[in-house]
Amino acid sequence: MAEAAVANRKGGVVEDLRNHLSLLVSGIDQEPTITAFKNGSADKNLYVAFLVQTRHYVALTAPRLEAAGRRLKELGEHPELADLFFQKAEEESGHDILVDDDLCSLGLDPEKTLAENPPGEWITAYNSWITAATNGRHPAAFLGSAYILEGLAVERAGKVARALVASSSIPKIADAVTFLDLHAEADIGHVDDLERILAELDDAAEHDAIVMTAAATRGAYLGMLDEVGRRQAKAH
């Protein structure tokens, strides 16, 4: 990940974020929900439950990026980062529709499906955290979440999508992995870019906010997978 581009000191924010990403990736590999996706044992309901919870947090990404940019402008801090947040908001806009397309490919009405399946506890907590962070004293905290989620997409999204298509018996699954596939490709290079930006931030309190948000994102994502798996197990 752009080793030469980042002067990464021991205990620095980039190193801390890499550690959180590594912990998330190893945690993902042990989650029963992801294991089911990879070995073909997941049924349609489990995958739909995953897509729905994904949709509930992805829909917040662009608005929160815009909010972070506006808050930085209000504070008079990091004008280039604020502009980057606005740019990223445009890039992320509409990504929730990719999930809708996957739900449609599975024969579901996205609006009805989302209405019947509200955000779970972990995604509700994550959305609340991100909202508070981007409205708070250190809106750059959003970088922690962006690093974790984009890093995870690069490390695992494509692999999970390919495994689903190769091993799952879910009807039309090959047409229902758009979100995973496109994020795996789109986020290549984004992590390196984030590391360069993070290496230029030198405020200790800001670093703490970024790392705490990364940790909250890691915990919420693993919690969401566990919650989805347990709910589907009870339904059977």
Automatic annotation (TrEMBL):
Question: Native species of this protein?
Answer: Methylobacterium gnaphalii
Q: Superkingdom of the source?
A: Bacteria
List the SMART domains hit by this protein, alphabetically. Answer: Haem_oxygenase_2
This protein's name: Iron-containing redox enzyme family protein
